[in-house]
Design a protein that fits this description.
This protein is an alpha/beta fold and 376 residues long. 45% of the residues lie in helices and 12% in strands.
Length: 376
């Protein structure tokens, strides 16, 4: 028998009898998979998907080289943990597995789930981006802590640096520091800052600089103050995060940001949230009610240029809606770890009907176009 190994394209290259048991001469591929116990768990999957499961399981035993690039992966810096209300006042930290997070445990989880590299960004829970020293300190601490993780674990992490976006002077300084000193791979923003969404004209100076630097800008959802606790016992994560992603995209669209800043490459999360099912309606409304010079080819054409990660939104409905409005080349693997279990993304992706080439693009290749440094 031969060794089990995962190539750079994520495919199974070979099999090792020391881990998988002996294979009888002439046994079929299907019989062999059945003997490994994968057929029952994945009987709805194609042979390629079954082999993908085999590779994922082998990664648990450490015999497969991780290959995925996770573009939606959070870090918990000391400054964030001590200064944000979600943790500093007890809250979710009490008894939560998040309190046990460390860079080392993050790497262990990545190895276990086939993630070669994670692109780090600040969480948004409990974080208020005010024009004050506390916000600037949390942002700087996050960025420096992330840069240290990149240095301490070569090849395992990238960094999306945060900005105190409502404070434009501080943001311009942080962009310079992030790129020129910390060597960040991109920038992480949130969908809105106290009900001012990302396309607001107040943020033009920062976006002009990001456009000059041809930045990758990752936009994470939050909940607007106008829409918190609208329904008793329903947290913002149920609905508002996904709707706020759509609001942020529309804000950029109607303010002409996609046309003004063509060098900025945007990533939005969770399979676009509510955006895919609203794209047709937005495209029609935009054409009727908005000046064409803000997006001469229409809203749908601008949305096709955006990137979307699939963190925890790999159910069939979400993926079908996303691929209806976005080409495969714009879809990225993401997990929202450590706030969401990696399996909430990988399990759905393994059950999907994407071809082997499409899975390769989603799991790795599309991210490498955005972050070529991660090829090393």
């Amino acid at each position: 028998m031969r060794n089990l190994e995962l190539g750079t394209n994520g495919g199974i290259l070979d099999l090792d009898h020391r881990n998988c048991g002996d294979r009888a001469p002439g046994a079929s591929r299907r019989q062999f998979l059945k003997s490994l116990g994968f057929l029952g768990a994945g009987s709805r999957l194609s042979p390629d998907r079954l082999l993908g499961r085999l590779g994922q399981a082998a990664s648990v035993s450490g015999t497969v080289k991780p290959y995925r690039i996770d573009v939606h992966h959070h870090l918990l810096s000391p400054g964030y943990m001590s200064r944000t209300t979600r943790f500093a006042e007890g809250g979710a930290r009490a008894g939560s597995p998040l309190q046990h997070w460390t860079p080392a445990t993050a790497v262990e989880e990545m190895d276990r789930t086939g993630i070669a590299t994670a692109v780090l960004s600040i969480p948004v829970g409990g974080m208020r981006f005010e024009k004050d020293e506390v916000t600037r300190a949390v942002v700087r601490d996050n960025n420096e802590f992330g840069a240290k993780m990149v240095k301490d674990y070569p090849g395992r992490f990238g960094l999306l640096a945060s900005l105190p976006l409502p404070d434009q002077d501080a943001s311009l300084k942080e962009i310079e520091y992030a790129y020129d000193v910390l060597k960040a791979d991109g920038i992480a923003l949130v969908t809105d800052y106290d009900d001012k969404w990302t396309g607001d004209p107040a943020y033009v100076p920062a976006f002009e600089e990001l456009n000059r630097r041809k930045a990758v800008v990752f936009v994470h959802p939050t909940a607007p103050t106008c829409c918190m606790k609208l329904i008793p016992q329903v947290s913002e994560g149920w609905l508002e995060y996904d709707f706020d992603t759509a609001r942020a995209i529309v804000s950029l669209l109607v303010n002409g940001a996609f046309e003004k800043f063509p060098n900025v490459r945007f990533i939005f999360t969770h399979s676009g949230g509510a955006m895919p099912v609203l794209t047709g309606r937005i495209d029609r409304m935009f054409s009727r009610e908005t000046a064409g010079d803000r997006a001469p080819n229409g809203a749908a054409a601008e949305i096709k240029k955006l990137y979307f990660d699939i963190a925890s939104m790999t159910n069939a409905a979400a993926l079908n809606a996303l691929v209806a409005v976005s080409p495969i080349s714009q879809i990225l693997f993401g997990t929202d770890y450590p706030f969401v279990k990696v399996a909430e993304t990988t399990d759905g992706l393994d059950r999907s009907t994407f071809s082997k080439n499409d899975l390769q693009a989603i799991n790795r290749d599309n991210a490498l176009r955005l972050f070529p440094r991660l090829k090393a």
